[in-house]
């Protein structure tokens, strides 16, 4: 998956797009259109090896439990595997699914009661990276121009995003993230995620690779293959 970021200063750097690297473009297009998140992601063909937990999740934050159920049901109907059924918790209501391409999605709300009928509106998308040392990786990204919005010691960090950015970047302990998602922590090979930005190619302390923005990608509704 590829994230392109915009902006040249710490105050306005933000993610501009997210591209998920998949083995089967046609199948991925069908899934993400059915899921209802095709307006927020791009796709790129990749045969990179990847086993087990890829070290990240994409999270949908919505307004109420009924909307969680709407997206959750759409994902399952489109072919997702349920990792955690949608249920109430101390923090709200949500569940976890794995897309056919292997990407894990968490759909959640902080609300515990519905205030109206279900909608298809997404309040926020969060890309949560599972890292070994949250403090060190946070400082790494600060050095690269991102601004911290929230930070809870060595457990969690969240960066601010621009008004036009569809995705927020956050960091969590890898082992804790795997536990929260209901998957084994072990994994190897490609993360299937590349972050595109203006600062040139580099890798963060956990091997998440950045590349120049504007790499070939396709939307789920695009018919032609990327060049």
Question: Topology, please?
Answer:
Elements (H helix, E strand, L loop, with lengths): L1 E5 L7 E9 L2 H11 L6 E4 L4 E3 L3 E6 L3 H13 L3 E8 L4 E6 L5 E6 L14 E8 L2 H10 L4 E5 L3 E4 L7 E7 H8 L5 E3 L4 E4 L4 E2 L5 E4 L15
Parallel strand pairs: 1-14, 2-3, 5-8, 9-12, 14-16
Antiparallel strand pairs: 1-2, 4-13, 5-9, 6-7, 7-8, 10-11, 11-12, 15-16
Helix pairs in contact: 1-2
Shape: globular
Number of helices, where a helix is a run of at least 4 consecutive DSSP H or I residues: 4
User: Percent of residues in beta strands?
Assistant: 35-45%
- Are there runs of 5+ residues with pLDDT below 50, and where? 2-12, 221-227
Spatial order of the strands forming the largest sheet: 6-7-8-5-9-12-11-10
Coarse structural class: alpha/beta
**H/E element sequence:** EEHEEEHEEEEHEEEHEEEE
Helix proportion: 10-25%
Report the end-to-end length measured between terminal Cα atoms: 17 Å
How confident is the prediction overall: mean pLDDT?
Answer: 86
User: What's the total number of strands?
Assistant: 16
Q: How would a crystallographer describe the biggest sheet?
A: 8 strands, mixed
Rg, please? 17 Å
